[in-house]
Amino acid sequence: MQDGNGLDHLAGERAMAQFDLQAMKVYLAGGQREYEISTKMAQLVANDPVFSKEDRVRLARKDLYKNSLRKAGHAWKTILEKGLSEVEGLKLRHFVDEPTYTDLHWGMFIPAIKGQGTEEQQHKWLPLAYKMAIIGCYAQTELGHGSNVQGLETTATFDPTTDEFIMHSPTVTSTKWWPGGLGKASTHALVYARLITDKKDHGIHAFIAPIRSLEDHTPLPNVTVGDIGVKFGNGGYNTMDNGFLRFDHVRIPRENMLMRLATVTKDGKYVRSNKPRQLGYGAMVFVRQGIVIDASIYLSRAVTIAVRYSAVRRQFGNKDEPGELQVIQYRTQQSRLFPLLATAYAYRAVGFWMKSLYADVMKRLNDNDFSTLPEVHACTAGLKSITTSVTADGIEECRKLCGGHGFLCASGLPELYAAYVPACTYEGDNTILLLQVARFLLKTLSQVSKVRPVGTAAYLGNIKQLSTQNCKVSQGHDWLNTSVLLEAFEARSARQAAAVALRLAKGSGSEAEFQENTPELVESARAHCQLILVSKFIEQLQTGTPEGIRKQLEVLCYTYAFSQLIDNAGDFLATGYVTGNQIALAKEELKHMFDKIRPNAVALVDAFDHTDDYLGSALGRYDGDVYTHLYKGAFKESLNDTVVVDGYEEYLKPVLTQNLWAPHSKL
Ligand SMILES: CC/C=C\C/C=C\C/C=C\C/C=C\CCC(=O)SCCNC(=O)CCNC(=O)[C@H](O)C(C)(C)COP(=O)(O)OP(=O)(O)OC[C@H]1O[C@@H](n2cnc3c(N)ncnc32)[C@H](O)[C@@H]1OP(=O)(O)O
Ligand SMILES: Cc1cc2nc3c(=O)[nH]c(=O)nc-3n(C[C@H](O)[C@H](O)[C@H](O)COP(=O)(O)OP(=O)(O)OC[C@H]3O[C@@H](n4cnc5c(N)ncnc54)[C@H](O)[C@@H]3O)c2cc1C
Fold this sequence. Notes:
Number of strands: 13
Number of domains: 2
Bound molecules: ligand LYQTPAFP, flavin-adenine dinucleotide
Distance between the termini: 61 Å
Radius of gyration: 27 Å
Keywords: FAD, Fatty acid metabolism, Flavoprotein, Lipid metabolism, Oxidoreductase, Peroxisome
Cofactor: FAD
Structural class: alpha+beta
CATH class of the largest domain: Mainly Alpha
Helix content: 40-55%
Shape: globular
Main location: other
CATH architecture of the largest domain: Up-down Bundle
Oligomer: single chain
CATH superfamily of the largest domain: Butyryl-CoA Dehydrogenase, subunit A, domain 3
Family: Belongs to the acyl-CoA oxidase family.
InterPro entries: ACOX_C_alpha1, Acyl-CoA_ox_N, Acyl-CoA_Oxase/DH_mid-dom_sf, Acyl-CoA_oxidase, Acyl-CoA_oxidase_C, AcylCo_DH-like_C, AcylCoA_DH/ox_N_sf, AcylCoA_DH/oxidase_NM_dom_sf
């Protein structure tokens, strides 16, 4: 989408492209229909002044939040007035580009009711939620516990005399703390609490608790609720009202417990269904799978800014060429930037696959087939962890790649980082999630002689072969073979998992020993996830990629795989599967890939199709007119509202006019 002012400082770059840009845009959008919807919604948002992002980083919290409420309300009105479909509405909210209460309402409250509510409960709550007659949040985390869900303290005690649950926060640490949308916007909370019937604790279950009046939005009696305070960075996640919530013996009807997985009867009997209790974590699995595509989008925004700016920015020169060099010409710049570009493409491909994996598991669950649940949990948890960590670090790297100007909010990068970095923590702390993957790998290995592993763990079925055979690469171009690459990632992951499993098996099985080995367990989980990412990127390429873009995608795929191999060379070498020389050969191949990316770099980021409005960056503008806009932008700075700064009379003038020698001055 070109929306520059006609001057194209990057025209020369664009003329070098060697692939079908339009086909790439459609591929990255996920298909022609998705592309058309994206384009339409991006323009709708960009052309509506209510959605303007101008000045967001300068607003005080109250104004920022009020403005965010205004945008969310306007988005909803636009959706209704234009009769937008659910997919269009989702896209529109995506382009509004501000974390807000509707993310949790649509992204977690509704999915949790769908996954855990009975049909009757869905009929009661979903119509209200779909028309936003109620606003819901997902209130799981407490002051004292987030990762350890089984450790939550809020109680829901059944009172058979009134057919109600009594919701209570018995300690300070039981205060619900963090839920997005809870602080100021929600009327209802999906509360995770310990279910108690007849003095027996049945563990964590989900309850719908009304928290604010539908008449005047005041908190209901005995409910204490508010916002937890300002968060990291300007703008960023501060548009969200992450909240606290306490109950003082608040009564809710028995039917407000979501009862698909377990029921409490009128006379107080607790009945579990035969479905796994982990289905209660379904909303988290749903969001984790979506986070992979989201990571690609965030990373692609940072990379678009850094690539375009690196093509505009010139520093130094050399005796072989006239003038100064574009910084994108420097190998070091390429070696930091191009792997991130390739990673954004990799996550897009893997994100598409995650969607199909999730659709498959949902279909199975409907047929009461729970067999793939552990693998899907490991996959969603692991890929959420890796992709968010890499993306957060990648955004920060892009900021550094833009030198000093990257540090200005006008670059768009500080705010992008502030909005994104909590993704490493929310929806599961990234280390906790990798430990879940490690547990899955250990379990899979312990059963490998009896149960053939399937799906993303299938390679562990070849553990013997992968543990004995070594890499056969003898020349650089031997690496240009996806089977060779895949085997390297499989062997490294299988060997790392087997090594730590063996060490644990030789021990006493104590928790202390397990703890001692957690760093290696996390490394082995990371290796497994990197294998999934590389293998699924390859697999996606091999299934019907249009001719006009296949070559470029192959280059990006090799770039991604080689950079992963080199960044983790220590692990690959330690497992003994590859030699130092083979790593050196891969490094040479990676440089050849950089040469192939270089003429296409700007077009490859254009293919992400981010509008200038969505990017919000003077450095990443489509037209490359960076300096004019940085300069113009300085005049919007509030300190420049007056020529002589407010504070001069009180604080600057006395300093300038005292004309006294400072006592310590040596002059
Ligand atoms: C579609 C959306 C698109 C994009 C998204 C974009 C933006 C996001 C929008 C909003 C996001 C904003 C905010 C985020 C909101 C939140 O943060 S909500 C709170 C999230 N909280 C967490 O993630 C907590 C993390 N903790 C846990 O998940 C669990 O407590 C645990 C897994 C760490 C441990 O659970 P336990 O019950 O104690 O389990 P265990 O005893 O360790 O394990 C028991 C067995 O269960 C398996 N298991 C665990 N989780 C799952 C699961 N989700 N599904 C299936 N199976 C699971 C576990 O592996 C064990 O298996 P065994 O075979 O070993 O018995
Ligand atoms: C912006 C934001 C939005 C959020 N939105 C919501 C929401 O809408 N609803 C909701 O319910 N929650 C929400 N949360 C809470 C979030 O899900 C939790 O913060 C997250 O799950 C991490 O839990 P914790 O804070 O308890 O971290 P902790 O578990 O206390 O982690 C602290 C450190 O301890 C380490 N650690 C903990 N246990 C172990 C272990 N067993 N082994 C090794 N290391 C360990 C962790 O790796 C981490 O380094 C949100 C959080 C943020 C930041």
